[in-house]
UniProtKB/TrEMBL annotation:
Biased composition (Pro residues): 66-83
UniProt keyword annotations, A-Z: Carboxypeptidase, Hydrolase, Protease
Signal peptide from the UniProt entry: none
Organism of provenance: Deinococcus hopiensis KR-140
Disordered: region residues: 59-88
Domain D-alanyl-D-alanine carboxypeptidase-like core as annotated: residue spans: 110-211
SUPFAM superfamilies, per database record: Hedgehog/DD-peptidase
Protein name: D-alanyl-D-alanine carboxypeptidase
Amino acid sequence: MFNSALARTAAPRTQLTLIAALVGSGVTLTGVVGCPSVGAALASASSAVFPAALPLVAPRQREPGPPRPPAMPRPSSPPPAPRLIPGRADGVVPDGVTVFDTELPAVANLNPGLLRALRQAARDAAKEDVTFFVNSGWRSPKYQNQLLQEAVTNYGSAKEAARWVATPETSPHVSGDAADIGPPKAAAWLSEHGARYGLCQIYRNEPWHYELRPKASASGCPPMYADPTQDPRVR
Ligand SMILES: [Zn+2]
């Protein structure tokens, strides 16, 4: 009797001891525990500790699936485009640049003989209160091409644009052999005194465009071309 009563009271304790051991070891309890209600409760509690034991109740979006494709850029944030607009490194000149501003590629990349003559002329012109500004000097092929395309647009045809802007292959600006000097007062000073320094206007339609003609200091500047289309160098 005593033993029988002890056995009845000991049985549940033994079962609970077993359950505790199983929980502690991480074993899934559903179906192991004899009492369905106790097993379900413990299984529910254990799911928080061992979620992998209940894959069917996991959210669908967490189920393993095929590999996802790499994330595509959002339409609102396209990748940065390569720089297409010429800058100072291409010879673009900001306002107020003189022949002494050698930190700018447009000035620094000019033919040294041309730059030397321009500086000497600028020093002498300054004594007469005339300041030379470089409106354009050396240009990269990219910059020259942009100017040519703009001229085609502005003048309406490639033929008319050629009267004003040479190609990257033929432009004396790209080779560093030409500078456009302003304002008109400075260009007028060069028209009168430039030959003394070997500085000559080359095209009749471009009173600002000067190149070096070393013989001019002795024999004067050569006759001008009406416009660049008459220049055999740019044909
Ligand atoms: Zn020019």
